[in-house]
């Protein structure tokens, strides 16, 4: 701890602030490849690069890994098989066997989010899942799949009719009211999915930064408290990274199956 304090004493507050917050301040201006299409800025920056890296790792684990299976598996194949087994046992088929056809998607979603979450823990990287635009986009894709599956399996009229029970008392009043409540809930589902992931991952990073920033305001002697606290929260964020990836994936699977079996639930 003493060498660390000596090093901190040689750094100005401005330099220390930059080292703590540079992940957020420079992400949009680092590693930039300028691209403009019809006046729309589509430049690739550090945020997008880490999104690409996360997609590449997910592709390597799931797509490539499933095509190089051997009779005597090595460590890589064991990891791939364990991931597949996890998805098969804990994601697909929450309400029925037919729902298992969607577990490849929700498993891919789980691995993709988990990879991005874990990469965001690496110093100097960028936590993509702490970007609300990205998480809401994933949630919007889930919303579109849910509605498409509900309509495809039940039909337009039957699916939307199932949004409220038909045998409620005072049906002319309560049925429209309950239908509107369900409609609001359908839009709230993807919103809560995206915001939950974003808020948890952002909050985890900010808590760590807050502890480290205590050094800026109260001097380097606070490193005795703030650094160990930041390390503890760093370990806790590792748990949150896994948990939030699973929550997003399992709720996506549940929402899809609820839409598929919408008429059977009433």
Automatic annotation (TrEMBL):
A GO BP annotation: proton motive force-driven plasma membrane ATP synthesis
Pfam family, one: ATP-synt_A
SUPFAM superfamilies: F1F0 ATP synthase subunit A
Cellular compartments annotated: Cell membrane; Membrane
A GO molecular function held by the record: proton-transporting ATP synthase activity, rotational mechanism
NCBIfam families given in the database record: ATP_synt_6_or_A
HAMAP family, per database record: ATP_synth_a_bact (MF_01393)
Family recorded in the similarity comment: Belongs to the ATPase A chain family.
Protein name as catalogued: ATP synthase subunit a
Organism: Rubrobacter taiwanensis
